[in-house]
Amino acid sequence: MTGARHRVVVTGLGVVTSIGTGVDAFAAGLRAGRSGAKPITAFDTTGFAYSNACEITDFDPEAWITEQSPDDLGRAAQFAVAASRMAVADAGLTEEQVRGVRSLVSVGTTDGESRDLDHLTGLQVTSGDDVLDAVVARRVWPGRLSAGIVRELGLEDVETVTVPTACAAGNYAVGYGYDAISSGDVEMALCGGADALCRKTFTGFYRLGTIAPDVCRPFDADRQGILTGEGAGILLMESLESALARGARIYAEVLGYGLSCDASHPVAPDRDSIARCITAAHRNAGIEAADVDFISAHGTGTKANDVTEVGAIRQVFGDELPRTVSIKSMIGHTMGAASALASAACALALRDGFIPPTVNHRTTDPECAVDCVPNEAVAADLKVVQNNGLAFGGNNAVLVLGRWDTAPVPTVA
Amino acid sequence: MAAETGAPPAELVISGWAVSSPYGLGRAAFAGGLASGRRAIAPLDGADWPVPYEEAGLIPGFDIKAVLGRKGTRSMDRVTGIAATTVGMLLEEYGTGLAADPESTGLVLGTSGSVQSIMDFTRDALTGDKPYLVDPARFPNTVMNCPTGQSAIRHTLKGPNVTVSGGAATALLSLQYASRLLRGGHGRALLAGAAEEFSVQRARLERVADHGGAAPQPLGEGAALFLLQDAADARESGRPVLATVLGSRFRAFQDTARAGTALERCVADVLAAAGATPDDVELIAPGTPPGLLGKQEESALDGLTGNRLPVRSLVGDAGAASAAFQLAAVLAEAEADPRLVDRLTLVTAVDRDGTAGALLLRLA
């Protein structure tokens, strides 16, 4: 696309999910097709006919947050900080080494600390409009999601930004890191997404009739919607030169990404616009559709999303669709963390040679007929994978990752 | 036309701008207000605004339906209305030709959405007959990218549509994001800037926030957006080059006492990268946060002799839109003062969550 850019690789992963915290537990969960679905405990669900979500019930903020008071961070920021610490360690770096280079921290989110805003609203309702929990009130602004990481790691030569571009935000944040490193602006980047379960978002999706009563079944004829989820995924990225110079283990190369905006409807996805986004990503990455070995779909498991998304994929790929999976079947829809966690899953898939399954699957819907790798992971020799992120506001972002040792050299587009 | 075309921009410029501020809608009101030095902060009607503040910088008489019409505005919240209005003003004045290439035209908006919309939605859930009896049309308002996405819908902007957030530095981060997108080939023309609303819930939350150890200042609201593109594209389409973006630098500080050092480094780095010296800076629009943060910013800018443009003291603490107003003030000043042609200008921000940033421009 442009000359003399740096190649960008992923060398560290940090994940907090309902099927496992830490890259090894997450990888094992993906391979085993584990499900994080369970009854919600995050808030009182009295009055809802059903209320499963992919909640994280074993997260211990004190284990990860040591340089600031965990109470200064909301749950989403706590996830983000924990995942960042993991990503640095997983990359074989000390935090001092990260402090020594110019970096970018970009964290995507849908809801920021809306769980805290739920809490503050609840206080107003029960105790009066003037009643405020000041400790919580000070941590609700979304900037804290990225600033919390910077504070925890003691970074100074860093650009810190939160990217609240809803449910594709993780891909936006990772794409931004790719551009910042490939242009030479920064040497390393900690990028991804984080969100915490909250009443507000569960209620909104429930009201829209898009919450599944039991589990999430993407591409299934009987799919009934999403399960809300929570967690964080952070990718540590650096230039290929930097990774090679320090002998780092490389999960994957970031080949490029594309963005598009539907500019048509606030919540309904638009097939042509998604197809345009996929095409832009392929062009940016210097690949052809036929190069893609599998697609990690947005795959929410709603009627509308899966048909529209597969239609868009078909528009670009023709009848030769690559296997198309949704890890939301396992970890739920983790909102702003979703495409970041899916990016992490893609990176693991490339390194370890497997495709994560779409679990809870019974009968594929002919309206969105894909090989979704039903229920059991498969071994696969992968070179290029595509990760879709779609969001409210018609905000689409598609990321392309490649196995670094065999990745095609990007061609001029 | 594809979103990615041609070579990366050689020279990024601002070729248009628009502002909605406590002085009113439009550039003329803003420029006139600043030039007069009149404070745009007015007493609040406690019945309309039950907030722990006596005064605020509201966009005078802002009424979404009056400005944008009834279509598509039934459930629109205030920050979305402000953003969509400002995007519309920019496109109306400077948008010639952009509509022909909607897929390469995008929006990078700095905003943290509307805490009012989020909390109202949860309140409805908690107080209704059933916990799910909420207005589904208002659900998108509770997601922070709503102003960005809605602005794209109203004005058919199909290129990159990105929402960014970073406190008082938000608008500088937004311009940086847009610059990288353009350099990365993700679009040809991007509107970049920030929007903020005044609301009861924002006021309640801001009242207890850390204001550098000082008392909270009156809150402001509004939006300012800037059209960013390659200089050659701007000239080809008959748009004026108002300023060249020379670069931005950001750093973090762990405690407030280090904020000045962080900003000083940002300024030194951004000047050095542009091959400029402190003496070249003719005009500075600092963030002027209250308390210790403000003192830190002042000390960081000590070595610069350029004129200071006060903004916050006149329009209030505009939250996410703060630095967008500062940049708008610079462009308003440049329009009025021909001596600023070819001179450098700095916009700086120091955010309470630990970010310092500086944006360097050459005025045209």
Automatic annotation (TrEMBL), chain A:
Pfam families cross-referenced by the UniProt entry: ketoacyl-synt, Ketoacyl-synt_C
Keyword vocabulary terms for this entry: Acyltransferase, Cytoplasm, Transferase
CC annotations in GO: cytosol
Major localisation: cytoplasm
EC number from the UniProt entry: 2.3.1.41
Keyword presence, Metal-binding: no
InterPro entries, sorted: Beta-ketoacyl_synthase, Ketoacyl_synth_C, Ketoacyl_synth_N, PKS_Beta-ketoAc_synthase_dom, Thiolase-like
Domain annotation Ketosynthase family 3 (KS3): ranges: 5-403
GO biological process: fatty acid biosynthetic process
Record-level Gene Ontology MF annotations: 3-oxoacyl-[acyl-carrier-protein] synthase activity
Superkingdom: Bacteria
Family: Belongs to the thiolase-like superfamily. Beta-ketoacyl-ACP synthases family.
Protein name in UniProt: 3-oxoacyl-[acyl-carrier-protein] synthase 1
Protein source organism: Streptomyces diastatochromogenes
